[in-house]
């Protein structure tokens, strides 16, 4: 995306969120729209593919805190008319005419590129160079955009760690030209207009500023004979499979970053990153609290009163825990080192919550035994409750 896109395109509207939306709301809106318009779910639908590109482009900016801040600053600056001056600016002769179309070259196709982009700071670092100023530093091939996907893991795999094949349908490096955009047997050549700088300097009144070279679109090189496969972009949409290692202890909602596995850069530029959002399926027995595993175990009234050696499962076997006599319902027993293994090699604990089960029905013999037990057991201390009942009754 180009700097001009940042001014002309409303990325908030593309995602259907207000400008005050938080990071979580932006991410949620992007995931919903990306799932609905993904090419895999809409084969042969060019409109869906275009929507997918639009929401992906919007999230690439709004999902990055630094880019979003620059985007908001740029739109606020141009929206306020800060750079719209007429010939008599400020009521004094000699004002400097300035139009945003001059900044971007104004020609159709003069700055829109599929890969990479320019930020607010890059755009304005060379606008006011004062006097005759020379050309800016070479920009070169632009970095590819980041890509985000989602993977569901079983609870056990998330705790232990696992390597899984991940299949993506996304832009990748063209195998025909290996990313440089040129027809096999040819090479891109240095742009004759900007001499590889990617920018040209223009003078206007007392100011000089640089703009992306229209001839090479700011890349610094031109492709005379385009690759027949990618049409000169250096990237194509294709299905690729890679093995991804999920470390032990990965948590639900965690993002795994794979450097250089995102979209390729234009004409050999560095690739973006791939971010894998992890969703962990719940386990039928175990829960998780940080690095600790949780487990609820039912016990009978008699076991709670008399005590018992309780055998409970772990992820890699079983342990025996001592339930002391007189244990109340809800008490938590701890099996140390039987939880999630941390990165430093240490492990969390297994926390076992005891749930005293009260039977709905009992036999006559059991009822008689309980009545005998109740007759020989002092009642629970409820004097403070009885006193309040008498006062309000």
Radius of gyration: 33 Å
**Low-pLDDT ranges:** 80-138
**Helicity level, as a percent range?**
25-40%
Strand line-up across the major sheet: 10-11-15-14
Q: Provide the β-strand percentage band.
A: 15-25%
Which shape, going by the Cα principal axes? elongated
Going by CATH, the architecture of the largest domain would be Sandwich
Q: Secondary-structure element order, as H and E?
A: HHHHHHHEHEEEEEEEEEEHEEEEHH
CATH-assigned fold name of the largest domain:
HSP40/DNAj peptide-binding domain
Give the helix tally: 11
The first-level CATH class of the largest domain is given as Mainly Beta
Q: How many domain regions? A: 3
Supply the helix-strand structural class.
Answer: alpha+beta
Beginning-to-end CA distance, first to last residue: 76 Å
What is the fourth-level CATH superfamily of the largest domain? Urease metallochaperone UreE, N-terminal domain
Roughly what is the average pLDDT, rounded to an integer?
79
Pfam family, one: DnaJ_CXXCXGXG
Binding site for Zn(2+) 2: 191, 194, 213, 216
Family: Belongs to the DnaJ family.
Domain J: 10-75
């Amino acid at each position: 995306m180009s700097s001009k896109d940042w001014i002309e395109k409303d990325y908030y509207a593309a995602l259907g969120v207000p400008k005050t939306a938080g990071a979580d709301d932006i991410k949620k809106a992007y995931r919903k729209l990306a799932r609905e318009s993904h090419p895999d779910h809409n084969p042969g639908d060019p409109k869906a593919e275009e929507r997918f590109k639009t929401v992906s482009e919007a999230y690439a900016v709004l999902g990055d805190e630094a880019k979003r801040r620059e985007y908001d600053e740029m739109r606020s600056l141009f929206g306020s008319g800060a750079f719209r001056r007429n010939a008599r600016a400020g009521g004094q002769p000699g004002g400097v005419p300035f139009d945003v179309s001059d900044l971007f070259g104004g020609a159709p196709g003069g700055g829109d590129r599929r890969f990479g982009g320019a930020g607010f700071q890059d755009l304005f670092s060379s606008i006011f160079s004062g006097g005759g100023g020379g050309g800016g530093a070479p920009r070169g091939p632009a970095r590819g955009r980041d890509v985000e996907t989602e993977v569901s893991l079983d609870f056990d795999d998330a705790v232990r760690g696992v390597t899984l094949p991940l299949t993506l349908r996304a832009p990748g490096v063209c195998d025909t030209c290996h990313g440089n955009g040129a027809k096999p047997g040819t090479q891109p050549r240095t742009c004759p207009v900007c001499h590889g700088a990617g920018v040209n300097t223009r003078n206007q009144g007392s100011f000089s500023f640089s703009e992306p070279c229209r001839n090479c679109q700011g890349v610094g090189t031109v492709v005379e004979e385009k690759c027949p496969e990618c049409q000169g972009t250096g990237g194509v949409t294709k299905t690729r499979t890679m093995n991804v290692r999920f470390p032990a202890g990965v948590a639900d909602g965690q993002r795994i970053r794979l450097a250089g596995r995102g979209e390729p850069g234009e004409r050999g530029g560095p690739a973006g990153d791939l971010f894998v959002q992890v969703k962990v399926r719940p386990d039928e027995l175990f829960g998780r609290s940080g690095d600790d595993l949780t487990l609820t175990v039912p016990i009978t009234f008699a076991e709670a009163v008399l005590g018992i050696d309780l055998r409970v499962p772990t992820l890699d076997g079983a342990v025996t825990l001592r339930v002391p006599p007189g244990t109340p319902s809800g008490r938590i027993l701890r099996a140390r080192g039987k939880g999630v293994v941390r990165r430093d090699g240490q492990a969390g604990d297994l926390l076992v919550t005891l749930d005293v089960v009260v039977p709905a029905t009992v036999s006559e013999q059991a009822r008689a035994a309980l009545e005998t037990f109740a007759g020989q057991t002092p009642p629970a201390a409820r004097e403070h409750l009885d006193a309040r009942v008498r006062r309000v009754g």
